[in-house]
Amino acid sequence: MGSRDEKFSQFLRNTEHYHPRAAFLLLVLYLFLNNTINAASDWTEITRDPYSTTEMWEPYLWEYSSALATALLCIPLVFFIRKLDASSCGAKTWLLAHLLFATVFSIAHVALMVTFREISYLFFAKEYNFGPLWREFLYEYRKDIWGYATLISLYYILLFSYRRLIGEAAIINEHQASELNKISESTTELPAHLLVKKLNKEFLVRLCDVYWIEASGNYVNLHTCDATFPLRYTMKQFCEQAYTKGFIRTHRSYAVQSNVIDNITFTDSGDGTVVLRNDIKIPISRRYKDALKARLSPVMAK
User: How many separate domains does the chain show?
Assistant: First the structure.
């Protein structure tokens, strides 16, 4: 991966906590821009009827109330999608769950939309008439089902693209591992290989090629000689599961591969520095000094 791609991926990881809010704001902006265009089109059609008593603000209120209701419902929608995906259910269950939630989504959308309109019409001293309930609901339900399908499709497309952009490493699943014969039989240990997908490429990263680890928010960055790969693990979790692979924690935010250590120096304060074979220097804190010595050699621990 080029340095420019790596810097962009790192920027995305460093600003990850802002992304949900930014995505929501972009969605709201899109909904209101799209519905503004729809309202303008509606008003054009209305003005062609010389007997219409509809005022100019009404089509905009209709469209904006729908956009606001949709935006508010996107929050529980994302929560539902994440819960459903985490359950690892089958395809039939997944489709049925979405069909049921889409119905709930439509009912809630119509209820919110009509409520917003009723309240707004009061300010203009006018009465809002939704129309025949079942006929209008079926009309809205048809549109909401299509809108729901569009929203979840957009969610998965953006999620797929986002993961490719940040180049997130992932544990090879059991099916892939059995084909490659690379994974440890123990489920509490990291496999020998990690799969990284970035843009239109896939990388198979050998854990033994990783020189050092750096904590970075919700990730740990795996540093090889020429690239960096993020893995969504905590430092504690990684060090525990990569213990048998030779990784040693030296600091709250760092760990190293014991096989690539060139030399170690300590200061009078008890802190130290690990120098790797590629001349990278990793700090050692006093908290991890004794464990590091004991792990490397019983002689050093004395």
Answer: 2
Q: Are residues 8 and 157 in the same domain?
A: yes
| Cβ neighbours of residue 134 closer than 8 Å, sequence gap 6 or more | none
Query: What is d(CA 260, CA 155) in angstroms, rounded to the nearest whole number?
Result: 42
Domain carrying residue 161:
3-166
Query: Does 290 reside within a domain?
Result: yes
Residue 178 lies in a domain: no
DSSP per-residue codes, 130-161:
--SHHHHHHHHHHHHHHHHHHHHHHHHHHHHH
pTM of the model: 0.62
Whole-number pLDDT of residue 11: 76
Asked whether residue 186 carries a pLDDT value surpassing 70, the answer given is no
Amino acid 53: pLDDT: 87
Whole-angstrom distance, CA of residue 191 vs CA of residue 207:
8
pLDDT band at 165 (very low <50, low <70, confident <90, very high): confident
Co-location of 227 and 144 in the same domain: no
